Every structure is written in C-alpha cells, then in structure tokens.
TrEMBL record:
InterPro entries: C-type_lectin-like, C-type_lectin-like/link_sf, C-type_lectin_CS, CLec_Tetranectin-domain, CTDL_fold, EGF
Molecular-function GO term, any one: carbohydrate binding
PANTHER family: C-TYPE LECTIN DOMAIN FAMILY 11 MEMBER A, TETRANECTIN-RELATED
Name this protein carries in UniProt: NCAN
Spans through the membrane: none
Annotated source species: Mytilus coruscus (Sea mussel)
Subcellular location: Secreted
Broad class of the protein's primary localization: secreted
Residue ranges annotated for the C-type lectin domain, each copy included: 164-283
Database matches in PROSITE patterns: C_TYPE_LECTIN_1, C_TYPE_LECTIN_2, EGF_1, EGF_3
Keyword tags: Disulfide bond, EGF-like domain, Lectin, Repeat, Secreted, Signal
GO cellular component: extracellular space
Disulphide-bonded residues: C86-C96, C107-C116, C144-C153
C-alpha cells in the first residue's frame, strides 16, 4: 500500500516503510534531504525498480497531473481529481516535498519556518546601509557601516561628527579660547569632550595624532589650582593621560589650567593656557 500511495503523487519515486509502526515516508529522490534509509527495520523501495501486476492505471498512468487513476471493471479506469499537500504551494520561499504526514518545505537560503514564511532579512531591517545576516528563524543581525550603531544601525552621528562607543565626537578646525569652545559645543547640543576611561582617551589621542593638531578637552583646574575637574558636572578627573612633567601650571608667570591633547607633548595631556586659542573636541551621545 505504501508503494501504491507513492504512485498517486507525481513527485514520489521512492518510499521508506517501517512495518512496526506502519509508517510510510514518501520520497522524491531528486529533492534535497530525501534519502532511502538503508536500515534493517525499514523496508525501502525505489519506485523505478518496482513491478506489480499491470492494470489500466499502471505502469502508464493515463490520467493528468493531480488526478488519481482508479482501475475499474473490464480493464478500464477513472480519473478523479485530488489535491496533493503541495498543490496550494504552501512553501512561500522554498520547495514543497510531499511526505506521509503531508508536506515538508525545503527553504531557500535566507528563509526559514514551517512554510519558509520567515525571511528575516527581507525587507532589510538594517538601516543606514547596514548588512543583514540571517541567524535563524526570525533571527538576524545587522552589521553597521562606520558612524552607525544599534540593533538596526538606527543610531547615527550628525554630519562631521565621529562615532565611538556610545558617543559622537566633533574635532574642530577652528581655534577658540577655552570659554568660547565650551559655548561652541553647547550650541551643538554637546559639551567639550570628557574622556572618562582609557578607551575613550586613546580614541581621542589617536584621532589627534591623525590630525597632527592640539585639541583641548573639557577639563581644567580653574576652580582649585592642582585639582582637575571635568567641566560638565565638576567630577574629579579619575583617568588621565598626562605627559611626564605635566601638569605643571606653566613654567613662567602664566597659569595653565585647561586640559589639552598636545601635539608638542607626544599627543598626551598638557595643562595649557585657557586664554590661548586652540582647536577642541566636542562630544554628545549618539541619537
Ligand atoms: Ca593650573
Ligand atoms: Ca603645562
């Protein structure tokens, strides 16, 4: 009966049959993942080698596709329409295989799900030019281009700002005294940069090296000589990058109070004159 069952479907050309549980698995050997099981508990058969007594429906099936041939009296036959589990094309992004239980979908690359209905990267959920990679059923990850971040690469920095960590940084080309630089950053909805850990310190340092320029930051000891605070909320500067010999408050009569990454100090920190004009770095959280 398993072989007869197979014969009804135009794609079926082999069966696996497990007598103990009366399980019949219909196979299309041309389809991926359909294999005859060579196991002592299975009875398997390749339909191309199958012989049975001929009748009006076998070996030549006179009925059209998706119709069932029924032998009748006097070596006649009748064709009755039937619908295979694959007739309705249930596999949205894949190939339909008829099985004993119904059908099984073999999904295209980048699709998954019982009916290959999940295509998590179509349409591309990654924004701002991000690349989508399928990880599994409805699972994906976005690989973001530089200066974008977030699960969907939805986070960006304004034009002219550079992303690092969770922040955007602006390296000025213009030179201002420290007080004016502070206002400039405030007007851009930011503050003078306050790199609070070694990772941020090296990022800004490496950028300054690239620009070959001195850039001032948001720290100073204006309030109490020798006590360097970040400007935004007067936090003590806990991580620093002073060049050896700095801070020195200046070697002549001038007071040096403002923290800058100095090209003359190996791009490490120097306390410099707040009333001198320098380039500077603003920061703000990315949006
Ligand atoms: Ca000082
Ligand atoms: Ca100094």
């Amino acid at each position: 009966m398993c072989l007869r069952h197979c014969h009804r479907y135009k794609d079926c050309n082999a069966v696996n049959y497990l007598p103990q549980i009366l399980k019949c698995q219909l196979l299309a050997l041309t389809a991926q993942n359909d294999n005859l099981i060579l196991d002592s508990e299975y009875m398997f058969a390749n339909m191309t080698n199958w012989k049975m007594s001929t009748d009006s429906c076998w070996p030549t099936n006179p009925c059209k596709e998706d119709t069932r041939c029924l032998p009748t009296h006097s070596n006649g036959h009748a064709c009755s329409t039937f619908v295979t589990p694959c007739t309705a094309s249930p596999c949205i992004h894949g190939y339909c295989n008829i099985t004993y239980a119904g059908y099984k979908c073999t999904c295209d690359a980048e699709s998954s799900g019982v009916n290959c209905e999940c295509k998590p990267c179509m349409p591309n959920p990654c924004r701002n030019g991000g690349t989508c990679t399928v990880l599994g059923e409805n699972e994906y990850s976005c690989k973001c281009i530089p200066n974008t971040a977030g699960r969907y690469c939805q986070r960006t920095c304004d034009t002219g700002w550079v992303m690092s960590g969770y922040k955007c940084y602006y390296f000025s080309q213009i030179e201002y005294i420290w007080r004016t630089a502070k206002s400039y950053c405030t007007n851009k909805n930011g503050v003078l940069a306050e790199p609070s850990n070694s990772q941020k310190i090296s990022f800004l340092r490496n950028k300054a090296v690239g620009f070959k320029r001195t850039f001032c930051l948001g720290g100073s000891d204006i309030r109490t000589e020798g006590t360097f605070l970040w400007n935004r909320n007067s936090r003590l500067i806990s991580h620093s990058d002073w060049n050896p010999g700095q801070p020195d408050n200046g070697t002549d009569a001038q007071n040096q109070d403002c923290v800058c990454i100095s090209s003359k100090q190996g791009y490490r920190w120097d306390d410099m004159d707040c009333e001198q004009q320098h380039q500077f770095i603003c920061e703000k959280p990315y949006v």
